[in-house]
Amino acid sequence: MVVLVGRIRVSGGSPAQVCGAGVLLASNMVISCRQVVSEALGRTRSRLYVDCPEAPASPRISASVSDDGHVGDLVTLTLVKPAPVAPARLSHSPRRRSVRLFGYPRAFPSGVWVSAELGAEHEPTGWRRLRCLDGTAIEPGLGGAGVHDEADGVLGIVLIHAAATGDAVAWMIPTEGWPAALSRRQLAQAPAQPGGPLTFSDKHALAMALGEVPILSSPEGRRLIVQSLPANIRGAVPNHAVASLELFGLVDAVLAFDGGFEALYSVVATLMGETAVPVIHVRMLAMRLGLLVN
């Protein structure tokens, strides 16, 4: 049996009615999508519930929308107690086309595997169209499901939209676009691994912190920062039309070089000043992750 850590089922009402899915980011933090959370809250008014299919003997866990947890089409939830499974392993692969997801359509409240194909990236959102294979219909119960690669890493989350024709259309919001849905307080609570390899969530946190530095908020500012890096690092930084994806690419690129992040921080601190509040936040996070020292 394939076990997918971090897989969450979202429900509302009593008796429970499954509304969709979510992805476990930390022991008490889940990310899902707006329509799933809205449907669940519509059944219970103020609270919804999650459970973990990998731990069928565990009871439903009460959850609520996190402070600052409602951003666009993504919603983060705080659980009243830790989930009994490990958080998801986040991944990314911008060129990938064949994927799979595990959702909860109306006919399969216990869940079902769906094979799917990713379309081209949609600018300026960075979302990718999902086409379900094997004749599987796109239904709201697939909303919030993690989109998995062949190693069961989570590449993104499913969002269901209504097309102009009235038919349902599925999109994947890539993990690179999730940082905006996570507040700094939530990111600060996420586990760090100083001295070890950075997780995808760690890189997300760095990209989000850098995004709050004014000079990095514009394409021109980001180009100036990149052009100020050493030549070997500068040539490895990818360009992207979506700011959050470009920042993630910047972080991912500099971390591939010894001293790469120090070089990036030095440029940012020189141009903005070490005492600027956003720069201080970047430094504190980098120190927590073992990338900078006092």
Task: Give the topology.
Layout: E1 7-12, E2 17-26, E3 29-33, H1 34-44, E4 48-51, E5 61-71, E6 74-79, E7 98-103, E8 112-122, E9 127-132, E10 146-148, E11 154-162, E12 168-174, H2 184-189, H3 200-211, H4 219-227, H5 231-234, H6 243-254, H7 260-272, H8 277-288
Antiparallel strand pairs: 1-2, 1-4, 2-3, 3-6, 4-5, 5-6, 7-8, 7-10, 8-9, 9-12, 10-11, 11-12
Question: What would you say this structure looks like, in words?
Answer:
This protein has 294 residues and is α+β, with helices and mostly antiparallel strands. It has 3 domains: 7-79, Thrombin, subunit H (Beta Barrel); 98-177, Thrombin, subunit H (Beta Barrel), CATH 2.40.10.10; 192-288. Helices cover 27% and strands 29% of the residues. It is built from 8 helices and 12 strands. It has helices at residues 34-44, 184-189, 200-211, 219-227, 231-234, 243-254, 260-272, 277-288, and strands at 7-12, 17-26, 29-33, 48-51, 61-71, 74-79, 98-103, 112-122, 127-132, 146-148, 154-162, 168-174. The strands form 2 sheets. Strands 1-2-3-6-5-4 form a 6-stranded antiparallel barrel. Strand 10 and strand 11 form a beta hairpin. Helix 3 crosses helix 6 (243-254) and helix 3 (200-211) runs antiparallel to helix 8 (277-288). The longest helix is centred in the C-terminal third of the chain and has 13 residues, at 260-272. The protein starts with 6 loop residues before the first strand and ends in a 6-residue tail after the last helix.
